[in-house]
Amino acid sequence: MVDKIRKKTNFFQDNKIEKCIIDRLRSAGCVFAEEEARLLISAAQMPADLVDMVERRAGGLPLEYVIGWAEFCDLQISVDPGVFVPRRRTEFLVRQAIDLAESGSVVVDLCCGSGALGAALTATLEWIELYASDVDPAAVRCARRNINSIGGHVYEGDLYEPLPATLRGHVDILLCNTPYVPTEEIARLPQEAREYEARVALDGGADGLDIQRRVAEEAPHWLSPGGHLLIETSEMQAPRTLEIFSSTGLTAKIAKDEELDATVVIGTNFN
Ligand SMILES: C[S@@+](CC[C@H](N)C(=O)[O-])C[C@H]1O[C@@H](n2cnc3c(N)ncnc32)[C@H](O)[C@@H]1O
Fold first, then answer.
1. Do the beta carbons of residue 86 and residue 113 sit within 8 Å?
2. 75-114 as b/e, with b when 16 or more CB fall inside 10 Å?
3. Distance 54 CA to ligand 1 centre (A)
4. Does residue 101's CB lie within 6 angstroms of at least one atom of ligand 1?
């Protein structure tokens, strides 16, 4: 046993192995080959796993699915194949929610995917009451893994439908990264998203805003007085998202972060 561990340790510390992995990843077109090689080496349990992981990555499988996690707001979020990989850009949505939330806020994350947003909010705010939902069973399994242990509740179903009815009128922060890619543009997404992420995580209908419309329409029934709805959108779609919010009676504004290329529409329930 000791011999086996020593062999394994020597194998992983061998610079030639790291160099081989970098070369293999680079030849497969991985832009961040050095960083990915280090992550693969640290994620592998045994040499045979490492070989398999490198080959899966070189074959095009997104790195996050190979190692089983994605970095989001400095946290390691568990992600399974097919479940939307949380994007750096969405950290802006989390930051906007943090600015508006208080300790004790009731927070709902609709279209929660892996549950990354709720996990990040919980890590920053002292205490929140967190509820999340998603229609995709694989996403729900992942979200439960990421947020049940920190006190979050995860429900499976269409938008608000699976949430406890007792939350109606009591949600202080309703945040949502809906699918917002217009159907026709899915074919133009990077291969890693197009081929490996579930269609339900990407497709926002003809103009990309179908789910946003449904979320905003029902939001006033769920928000507390003074509660906020925050939805990520694209810079181009933002004026339409703003109109959708306003048509439901929310007072809305657009927030942008140039560096992350992130746009969020924030609506407040003053009724
Ligand atoms: C763009 S992903 C965002 C996931 C996560 N919020 C994040 O930012 O990492 C959109 C998510 O919405 C979910 N979804 C799509 N339609 C839905 C619906 N009608 N009800 C609930 N969830 C839905 C998908 O399964 C997917 O997990």
1. yes
2. eebbbeebbbbbbebbbbbbbbbeebbeeebbbbbbbbbb
3. 29
4. no
Q: Are strands 129-134 and 153-156 parallel, antiparallel or unpaired?
A: parallel
pTM: 0.93
What the block records as the tokens of 141 is 């399994």
The pLDDT tens digits of the residues spanning 89-107 come to 999 999 999 999 998 999 9
Residue 1 to residue 237: CA distance in whole angstroms: 59
CA of 41 to the centre of ligand 1 (A): 31
Distance from C-alpha of 251 to C-alpha of 253, rounded to nearest angstrom: 7
66-85 pLDDT per residue, tens: 999 999 999 999 999 999 99
State whether the beta carbon of 218 lies less than 6 angstroms from ligand 1: no
- Could you give the CA distance from residue 169 to residue 222 in angstroms, rounded to a whole number? 4
Query: Distance (Å, rounded) from C-alpha 217 to C-alpha 161?
Result: 14
- Residue 133: CB partners within 8 Å, gap ≥ 6? 108, 109, 110, 111, 112, 140, 154, 155, 156, 157, 159, 160, 162, 163
Distance 178 CA to ligand 1 centre (A): 5
* 109-163 pLDDT, tens digit each: 999 999 999 999 999 997 899 999 999 999 999 999 999 999 999 999 999 999 9
Distance 202 CA to ligand 1 centre (A): 8
Helices (H) and strands (E) in the chain, counts: 11, 9
8 A C-beta contact, residue 210 and residue 233: no
208 lines ligand 1 (CB under 6 A): no
- Distance (Å, rounded) from C-alpha 170 to C-alpha 222? 6
Strand locations in the chain (E): 69-72, 75-78, 106-110, 129-134, 153-156, 171-176, 223-233, 251-257, 262-268
